[in-house]
Design a protein that fits this description.
This is Phosphatase. With 253 residues, the chain is an alpha/beta fold. The protein contains nine helices and seven strands. The chain has a seven-stranded mixed beta sheet with strand order 3-2-1-4-5-6-7, sandwiched between helices. The chain is globular, with a radius of gyration of 18 Å. The structure holds xylulose-1,5-bisphosphate and magnesium ion.
């Protein structure tokens, strides 16, 4: 059996709880600025998360949630323009420190780096959203912790397609058999598993009812010594927070 060498992390929902209090808020700010009378509530946004990608989500809203809204011109241009402003507001929020990392994420990242694992990011979100979040939460130098930040439109088919994971592994020159993925959602695990990756799930409010039957383990958070995880499915092998010992055991299973 291959040795565990690399770890690939999703961002939204996994490293940080970005959706309800981050992306959703930024979308709503862009709608107000554009003079649209749209407002995505926490519940509506949960339904919209079925589609990954902000521009794709706007188009999904127009096609499936609105009855009498017609775009003057190309819907792709309309969504791209609106999304550009949404990204502006989201970046502003990260810079203001409004979006913290989830419990245990910083500790775990420092621990796995120390242990010599290679790290990468595989996410659907816009690349700048990732670099701004990392800089704001872990400092400028944290960008160098990751061999690749695979994000957004770099692949045309977003999650649940495997493409972003496959791309990240190609860039890092690593094989799926020596890599573990970290995800929070059904679209995320569909993507990572289709790319051949064993996957650790940490759930959040939007994803706790998703199907994670293919996960190596399902936890409510990475957790810390003083704020331990709850195991939703799988065997935590006596560990109470995500650490190097546990990922090695999960990988070897
Ligand atoms: C994340 C997404 C993204 C974010 C918003 O999914 O689907 O669209 O919600 O970011 P995952 P953008 O965690 O599975 O990668 O607006 O920049 O797309
Ligand atoms: Mg996610």
């Amino acid at each position: 059996m291959a040795e565990l060498k690399a770890l690939l992390f999703d961002v939204d929902g996994t490293l940080a709880d970005t959706e309800a209090d981050g992306h959703r808020v930024a979308f709503n700010k862009a709608f107000v600025e554009a003079g649209l009378d749209w407002h995505w509530s926490v519940d509506t946004y949960g339904e919209l998360l079925a589609v990954t990608g902000g521009k794709e989500r706007i188009k999904f809203f127009v096609s499936d949630f609105l009855e009498d809204f017609f775009v003057d011109g190309d819907i792709n241009d309309f969504a791209a323009e609106l999304h550009k402003r949404k990204t502006h507001f989201y970046l502003e929020m990260t810079q203001n420190g409004d979006i913290p990392l989830r419990t245990g994420v910083e500790r775990f990242l420092r621990e796995v780096r120390e242990a010599g694992f290679r790290l990468g990011i595989a996410t659907t979100t816009t690349p700048a959203n990732v670099s701004y979040l990392l800089k704001a939460t872990l400092g400028e130098e944290s960008l160098d912790w990751f061999d690749v930040i695979a994000a957004g439109d770099i692949v045309p088919a977003k999650k649940p397609a495997p493409d972003i994971y496959t791309y990240a592994m190609q860039q890092m020159n690593i094989k799926a058999e020596e890599t573990l993925a970290f995800e929070d959602s059904e679209n995320g695990i569909l993507s990572s598993v289709a790319a051949g990756l064993k996957t650790v799930i940490t759930t959040n409010g939007y994803t706790e009812s998703h199907d994670f039957s293919k996960a190596a383990i399902v936890l409510d958070q990475m957790g810390d010594e003083n704020d331990t995880f709850t195991v939703i499915a799988g065997n935590a092998q006596g560990e109470s927070y995500l650490n190097v010992a546990l990922i090695k055991k999960l990988f070897a299973e």
